[in-house]
Amino acid sequence: MIRKNPSGQLPHISPKAFIDPTAIICGHVIIEDNVFVGPYVVIRADEVNAEGTMEPIIIKQDSNLQDGVVIHSKDGAAVTVGARSSIAHRSIVHGPCTVGDDVFIGFNTVIFNTHIGNGCVIRHNSVVDGMDLPEQFHIPPMTNIGPHFDLNSIEKVPPQYSEFSESVVSANNALVEGYKKISNEF
């Protein structure tokens, strides 16, 4: 469902993107080419700041938001998901937040008030809250990262995880094409 926010803003969605009919895209949202938005995703840009304005939620080209992902922002702060990034099932990205290019965010992960550098891999059931991650960091499953976390205790992304992230992007890019071809069949 595509709908206006209370400020009257409608999403801008590339005709080359695929939005599942069960997804809700609301307000000041920009979705670029070849983005896959899976079933039951919610992207909601509707809160304003003290001045009554809001920044957009931007999903850049070739990215994918898998089943049940929620993206929202507090007080109209910006959220950007970079190009070729994957956000896996039931994850939450809450602004203010920037997710770089070529990032993989695993199942049930929560990202809030952070900048995730390009090429990071954040595995399932993790939380990154209030601490920025430099490029190419690998966050193991079930890791909680906060303002006082020692990033020196974490390794760079191993090659097998980079390859896995690339394969997820490729698979979801193929889904965009496939679903767009059959979108009028039901």
Automatic annotation (TrEMBL):
<dbReference type="InterPro" id="IPR001451">
    <property type="entry name" value="Hexapep"/>
</dbReference>
<dbReference type="InterPro" id="IPR052265">
    <property type="entry name" value="Gamma-CA"/>
</dbReference>
<dbReference type="Pfam" id="PF00132">
    <property type="entry name" value="Hexapep"/>
</dbReference>
<dbReference type="InterPro" id="IPR011004">
    <property type="entry name" value="Trimer_LpxA-like_sf"/>
</dbReference>
<dbReference type="Pfam" id="PF14602">
    <property type="entry name" value="Hexapep_2"/>
</dbReference>
<protein>
    <submittedName>
        <fullName>Carbonate dehydratase</fullName>
    </submittedName>
</protein>
